[in-house]
Amino acid sequence: MSDLVLVLNSGSSSIKYQLLHADTAEVLASGLVEKIGETQGGRITHECGDRELVHDGAIPDHRAGLRQAFEMFRETGLDLTTVGVGAVGHRVVHGGEVFWEPTLITDDVVRTIRELSVLAPLHNPANVIGIESTRELLPGIPQVAVFDTGFFHSLPEAARTYAIDAKVAAAHGIRKYGFHGTSHQYVSEKAAEFLGRPSSELNQIVFHLGNGASASAIAGGVAIDTTMGLTPLEGLVMGTRPGDLDPGIMPHLIHVAGLDLKQVEQLLNRDSGIKGLSGVNDFRELQELIDGGDPAAELAYAVYIHRLRRYLGAYLVELGAVDDIVFTAGVGENSAAVRADALAGLSGFGIEIDPARNETRAPGVRRISPDGARVSVLVVPTNEEFAIARAANDLVTAS
Fold it and tell me: Which candidate, 7, 32, 33, places its Cα nearest to that of 19?
């Protein structure tokens, strides 16, 4: 069977895709469909080898976007209907308590993912559209759902349970699920490989820091806690999301500030976090504002770091001892300042950063702690597409 896998990540207004070999991680083509459903500004950027194709124009829906992307594959000599795709792997954000392992997609699976949209109304509907569109365009090719919540299915009861009425929680699936699981699992395994030790021997803390951000505590290769909860709103401060909040803020916004539920959802999902505090959600723009002495940007950064350190301390206590701390994703991989400030003053815990190593950019996994430090601090580039491709290929091969 071919190890060639098409990986799709369908968002509410975008689709990221990659065609790669699951055995070697070799990428043959990749692309991004942007601003789906908007009347202006739609764009598809498709890369294949040293060629880049760009399609500008309105993209009415996900099916239209995928059809155009498939045409761009053909233009670069990779007709997806004949090139030998062995499987399609779909990132699905929420598996609820139904799905946690990679799952072959059937009509019943699609129906259940759609029903789970009550837990992820911004994500699962778009995931379903991507799945349905690809099943139409590539009939007969096995399709696999890989769930963002899967790695955190192992959370102990005490870590996953919210202290609300137990009957209400059970009736409505209210518990901590966690997200970015594919990334947390992938980078923790790569860190173990780099250290030359099996995951089963390691206690690890992973910081996935992008526009969305989460942390996890992993003991012996098994997740025991994570920052995101029922939804991706809980935990760390993010680009546009606030992370942890006093729950009383929500009724206060409704009853005192006069916001309706839709406005509250907009505020919490789109207009909070770094953006809410500083006006920008891109960390590069935030740094420019800080360099210019902007007090709002400085406060946003301080709040961001404060939350990172709070969870670092919590996970140090939960794990009892830590072997490695891993930074990944856009901010985690590229911001030396965030890494340094998050771990400053912790030499008493065996946690140190070598300034020169931290500032030096290099491909692949790299150590940024001094030689001989009790805790290894690593930067590990994430590769969720490869992890999804590998999971899809393994399941289809075994079926």
Answer: 7
